[in-house]
Structure of FadR/GntR family transcriptional regulator:
Amino acid sequence: MAVTDEAIEKIKGMIVSGALRPGDRLPREGELAADLGLSRNSLREAVRALSLIRILDVRQGDGTYVTSLDPQLLLEALSFVVDFHRDDTVLEFLAVRRILEPAATAMAASRISEGQLDALQAQLDRLGAAPSVEELVAADLDFHRGIVRGSGNTVLCSLLDGLSGPTTRARIWRGLTQEDAVAGTLREHRAILAALRDRDAEAARSWATVHIASVEQWLRSTL
């Protein structure tokens, strides 16, 4: 095991065991290196790596702290990794969304508040009948993010936020090349919202599946 990997594992062990808790300040570099049997250099590299994935927070002039370890914070790293996808893996990301997003939408049917539903309706109303493709894609991301947030599951919300990146270009491409794509997306959004208003989890799940599968099916036919 490389010395930096060993250092990462030892710090991870301290956090997992509870020796270091969210918000705790790490001991001084020299003290921690001695306690863990590490060189200062390997410890420094481990801290740098763990700060990149939001496990640690290095505050200049103050010290290094364990972050809150909230799922939303930790899963930010997923978005970074996903941005490096190849175009031929877009379908795989869409397939994962097709598994997760309908489930989250079904959960939202019983948990989302009337205020949240009103906000989603207002968003659709502001778009009008003929938004530009770019406006629709931005609104689509916000629409689904709002629904998943309404499910009350922060892990799902963060996962789906991270997975949305690679499908954005596919949505724009579809809107520019497929006739009726914009109108079809708006119809599907309204159907999803109506199912949520009715507190009909299965209808909400079905419409969300149709919505994602239509993009997936179109993209599969073009590749």
Strands lie at 56-59, 63-66. The longest helix spans residues 154-177. The chain has a mean pLDDT of 87.
